[in-house]
Design brief:
- It contains 10 helices and no strands.
- It has about 280 residues and is mostly helical.
- Helix 6 runs antiparallel to helix 7 and helix 6 runs antiparallel to helix 10.
Length: about 280
């Protein structure tokens, strides 16, 4: 399908945004000094995920350099707003990682000037909390720009509150499993569970809704919805069992993350396949 790059961009973008959102929330509520390094490492993973999303998305334009044309559409084009906001999220996350990295005593010995600069920035009162709040706001706004891009009045299958639920639930599910794999277990499992329950409890009403608009298209997506619900259901069960074990296995949580990613990619493929403009 021609929209496959957009499938990966939106899903991986929401995965990265959800990860950054949850590490920022964690930094606001956690008082442990050791959490700073953990957050930096997870945000570095989020940067890699977002970079991969941007690379894949560029191929949807036919030529990667055409992505620069997004600048001319900021404010009037929902897709330009989406990509521009994504760039801001990536940039602020990158700055956050750098500030943490160069604040460590054993890092960047050859970059004393940069270390001095980051030291001064980090000592601004409330800087860490302010940066976390900015990341939370930008993450949530980025997801909304995705919603605004696809809630088109001309596409009845997309112009629905179910689109909002899908985009934000993906953020919760994939952001939740990512931070769970890298050690922020309680918050990650809660977010993953909430997102999965939203998907599983709204799937039948959603299928009924789109079947009433384009029954042929909806019928062709049953296999993708079945994969999504099946993988999320299995992932939920595995997470529930693993969370009660004495020695919680990171490898098992990684398997849950793979299942969740496969499920959300399947659900997003079905979403794009429902494109229909009635004549």
């Amino acid at each position: 399908m021609n929209e496959l790059p957009l499938v990966f961009f939106t899903v991986l973008g929401q995965m990265g945004a959800g990860t950054v959102l949850m590490t920022s929330l964690y930094s606001l509520i956690c008082k442990q000094t050791t959490s700073v390094i953990k957050i930096m490492r997870i945000n570095t993973v989020a940067l890699i995920i977002m970079a991969l999303a941007m690379i894949i998305a560029s191929f949807h334009l036919g030529h990667p350099l055409r992505a620069l044309n997004v600048i001319f559409g900021i404010g009037r084009s929902p897709m330009s707003n989406e990509i521009f906001t994504f760039g801001i999220l990536f940039s602020v996350t990158f700055i956050s990682v750098l500030l943490t990295y160069f604040s460590q005593p054993d890092n960047g010995n050859r970059l004393q000037l940069l270390k001095k600069l980051t030291h001064k920035i980090n000592h601004i009162p409330g800087m860490a909390k302010l940066l976390a709040l900015v990341l939370i706001i930008v993450s949530l706004f980025f997801i909304w720009t995705i919603v605004a891009t696809y809630m088109l009045t001309t596409v009845k299958n997309w112009d629905t509150p179910y689109t909002v639920l899908q985009m934000y639930s993906t953020m919760l599910i994939l952001g939740g499993v990512t931070i769970t794999v890298f050690g922020i277990r309680k918050l990650g499992i809660i977010c993953f569970t909430i997102g999965s329950i939203i998907v599983l409890t709204t799937k039948l009403p959603y299928i009924h809704f789109v079947s009433g608009i384009t029954p042929d298209l909806a019928q062709a997506q049953y296999c993708f919805w079945l994969i999504q619900c099946g993988t999320l259901g299995i992932a939920l069960i595995i997470t529930f069992i693993n969370s009660f074990k004495c020695g919680k296995s990171t490898a098992i949580y990684a398997a849950v993350a793979i299942l969740a990613l496969v499920g959300e990619l399947s659900g997003r493929i079905a979403f794009y396949n429902l494109w229909a403009i009635p004549m």
